[in-house]
Design brief:
With 351 residues, the chain is an alpha+beta fold. Helix content is 34%, strand content 14%. The chain has 2 domains: 136 residues, no CATH class; 147 residues, Rieske [2Fe-2S] iron-sulphur domain (Rieske Iron-sulfur Protein), CATH 2.102.10. 24% of the residues are buried.
């Protein structure tokens, strides 16, 4: 058999195919095949099936509304620190689990309802349109509006009130989930930023030794850090409390104290000031004993502890709050009240 005979006829040049008696094809491989014939859905010919689809869509929208209400109820009902075991997830926060589950169901049901509505009840007739210039002509604009009106009519949006009303309800309730989430930005401050653990009679506890401070423990030129009596460094809220109640103790010769109230609130030249910088709340830890200046290491705000802890340099907006101190019957340093103003950076309630 020759090599030419082994080649299929459709692969031969046209003149050779003619010699073999093959018929020349004239079909255009790029011809427009057109749209397939429209096949009606069961909902198009059976109103009972259309009603079932309508009820299914309405059920999904209603389920979305129920899930949104459950989301809000979960946010209110479950504490953030409650841990439960849920198979197969293990030990999880019941609040986080319920919020994710209910919000997921609410969003999924809206999407599933819209898709089921489009696939079973809206018109599925395919139409072809010629390309047109980007700028629409008045005729095209009129045609678009006409097509929109036809589409609205074919969707049954005005006629199927059950779907329309439940969809509006689902879409109206879902944004409430975002509003409720704003509450999770943090607990309300109430008066927590204005007060600390310091009270009259609270002893000053040395942060290094955990022992009550006595006047003889504080020498001129030294810097000592103290916390309120009763505050346990291993307690759960220690960081929250010490962030407001942290205290620095400095002893200055009484004749070097320039501020009259500072002298009255001190004990034998021992002054107690908040350790929290009034700029952005950094802990102050640098002390210059010759000038009695303390420096915040974050942004170099400098305070004069011999003159009411006023700001002499840097971005801090106001002086450090002073704690009035005295000595109890045991000879230990104690607070005579709380700070006279909120500690740390200024916040909006000051104004």
């Amino acid at each position: 058999m020759s090599s030419q005979e082994e080649i299929p006829e459709e692969n031969l040049p046209s003149e050779q195919r003619a010699a073999h008696g093959a018929v020349e094809r004239t079909d255009d491989p790029f011809a427009d095949p057109g749209l397939p014939a429209h096949r009606p859905r069961v909902q198009d010919i059976d109103e009972r099936a259309a009603k079932r689809s309508e009820r299914a869509v309405a059920f999904l929208f209603t389920l979305s509304m129920v899930a949104t209400v459950a989301f809000i109820a979960s946010f209110v009902a479950f504490p953030v620190d409650k841990i439960v075991f849920i198979f197969p997830f293990g030990h999880v926060s019941i609040l986080h689990f319920s919020l994710g589950l209910t919000l997921g169901i609410a969003l999924f049901c809206i999407g599933a309802g819209a898709v089921h509505w489009a696939r079973t009840l809206m018109s599925d007739v395919e139409t072809a349109d010629d390309r047109h210039p980007i700028e629409a002509t008045p005729e095209v604009k009129a045609k678009v509006l006409e097509d929109f009106a036809i589409g609205a009519a074919e969707s049954g949006f005005g006629r199927r009130k059950l779907i329309r009303n439940t969809m509006f309800g689902a879409l109206a309730l879902v944004p409430l989930s975002g509003v409720v989430l704003l509450r999770d930005l943090g607990p309300l401050p109430e008066k927590k930023l204005r007060t600390t653990m310091w009270r009259k009679g609270k002893q000053l506890i040395n942060m290094n030794t955990n022992e009550p401070l006595r006047p003889e423990d504080v020498v001129v030129g030294s810097l000592t850090f103290a916390m309120p009596e009763g505050l346990d460094q291993h307690s759960e809220d220690f960081q929250k409390q010490i962030a407001k109640a942290a205290l620095m103790i400095v002893r200055i010769q009484p004749d070097e104290i320039k501020d009259k109230r500072e002298l009255e609130w001190s004990h034998q030249g021992i002054v107690a000031y908040s350790k929290i910088c009034t700029h952005v709340g950094c802990p102050i830890s640098l002390y210059e004993q010759q000038t009695h200046h303390v420096l915040c290491p974050c942004h170099q705000s400098t305070f004069d502890l011999s003159d009411g802890a006023r700001v002499i340099f840097g971005p801090a907006g106001h002086a450090l709050p002073q704690l009035r101190i005295g000595v109890n019957a045991e000879g230990n340093l104690e607070a005579l009240g709380d700070f006279d103003e909120p500690v740390g950076p200024a916040f909006w309630e000051r104004g």
